[in-house]
Amino acid sequence: MTLTIRPDPSAPADSGTPRPPVGRRRLTAMAVWAVAFTAWWLLLGLPLTDPILTFGWLWAATIAWRIDRPWRIHLRFARDWCAIVVLLQVYNLSRGFADQGVVPHAMEMVAADRGMFGWLTGGSVPTLWLQRHLYDPDGIHWWDVGASWVYFSHFVVTPVVAVVLWLRDRVRWVAFVLRWILLSAAGLATYFLYPAAPPWWAGRYGLIEPVSRGSTRAWDAIGLHGAGNVINAGQYSSNPVAAMPSLHTAFALLVVVFFLPRVRRRWWPLLLAYPLAMTFTLVYSGEHYMIDVFMGWLYVGLVYAVAALVERWWAPISRARAARADSARVAANA
Fold first, then answer.
1. What is the chain's Cα-based Rg?
2. What residues are paired with 242 via a beta bridge?
3. Where are the alpha helices (DSSP H) in the chain?
4. DSSP letter for each residue of 3-36
5. Averaged confidence pLDDT in the chain
6. Higher pLDDT residue, 152 or 181?
């Protein structure tokens, strides 16, 4: 019997010319990517609120990381992510129409927050209580800087986690993306069915005391004058009354819950600190009420339940397809 070893089709062709080690080429490519990304960040702002730009940069990062692979391998990113990026872009554009021609709900959230926390805040909503104690219109404190970084992480963590899973574990990538899309769809449907105003909106129109919107106010204080341009523009161009549920805190919890089963319990408090930090940021900066946050957490639970049902329904179909494919391969090799 002769053993024939076939070359790996994904391996780069040998041109006969010595090439630098993969580690050195990867380091160089990632350094080039980091310099280009930083230059874009400082000159034009963070390219992370638009799905096309976000995944364009992440695609470039995967190319740099796998610089030794042929282009047909890199093109698989476009194949796998195209539909997802289109769906996220539709979500971004659609939510801007949810408030057209309607008066948003506002006093219901005010009443809910007062009812839950009025005993602790002297009858105020938590946003106003936090701003009375922590907000300084004449200065930036460390918690303002932290809040701006946490708010910024919303635009980074979910897509980066998804891309890393795509590189390392396609089965878990599919599971994560399913939950991501379901949560986005559920949030978008609610924005149309129940448009709700955030605290800064209620303060602007005199429904509660004035509220300062401070989620990105610390960018200038840390020298990144152009860093918040895209985020700020996105805030004012998107739906200003998409507050219920809070998808910012929902996405933070979605990511954490996804990894909890694979992390030792001693690390759980550290992971759970992220959605709690996002909650503080959103409430303190006037972006959301606590009731919005609680509804976001509830949506995460519902999405995980629905995703589990979808996966249970799909599992036998997937196994049947795999069995047919194996049978076809056996018949072809017979």
1. 24
2. 196
3. 22-44, 51-65, 71-94, 107-121, 126-134, 142-153, 157-168, 170-193, 199-204, 229-237, 247-259, 268-284, 290-333
4. --PPPPTTSPP--SS----HHHHHHHHHHHHHHH
5. 81
6. 181
> Can you give the pLDDT at residue 305?
94
Q: Is the pLDDT of residue 12 over 70?
A: no
What percent of the chain is modeled with pLDDT above 90? 28
Give the model confidence (pLDDT) of 127-178 as tens digits. Answer: 999 999 999 888 888 888 888 888 888 888 999 999 999 988 888 999 999 9
- Please write the tens of the pLDDT for every residue from 44-70: 766 666 778 888 888 888 888 888 888
Long-range contacts of 154-158 (CB under 8 A, 24+ apart): 154/248, 154/251, 154/252, 154/278, 155/46, 155/48, 155/49, 155/54, 155/231, 156/48, 157/251, 157/252, 157/255, 157/274, 158/251, 158/254, 158/255
Which token pair is 315? 């599992």
Q: In whole angstroms, what is the distance from residue 224 CA to residue 222 CA?
A: 6
The CA distance from 57 to 38, in Å, is 11
Q: Measuring CA to CA, which residue among 290, 294, 255 is closest to residue 114? A: 290
What is the four-CA torsion angle of 313, 318, 324, 326, rounded to 10 degrees? -150
- Which letter, b or e, does each residue of 275-303 get, where b requires 16 or more Cβ atoms within 10 Å of its Cβ? bebbbbbbbbbbbbbbbbbbbbbebbeeb
Strand partners, 105: 196
Write down how long the chain is. Answer: 334
Residue 82's identity, in one-letter code, is: C
Instruction: Please classify residue 220 by burial: count the beta carbons closer than 10 Å to its beta carbon, then call 0-12 exposed, 13-18 middle and 19+ buried.
Output: middle
Residues 169-191: what's their mean pLDDT?
A: 90
Q: How far apart are CA 308 and CA 16, in angstroms?
A: 50
pLDDT of residue 328: 62
Structure tokens at 7: 């070359």
Q: What span, in angstroms and rounded, lies between the C-alpha atoms of 167 and 305?
A: 26
Q: Is 191 left (phi over 0), alpha (psi -120 to 50) or beta?
A: alpha
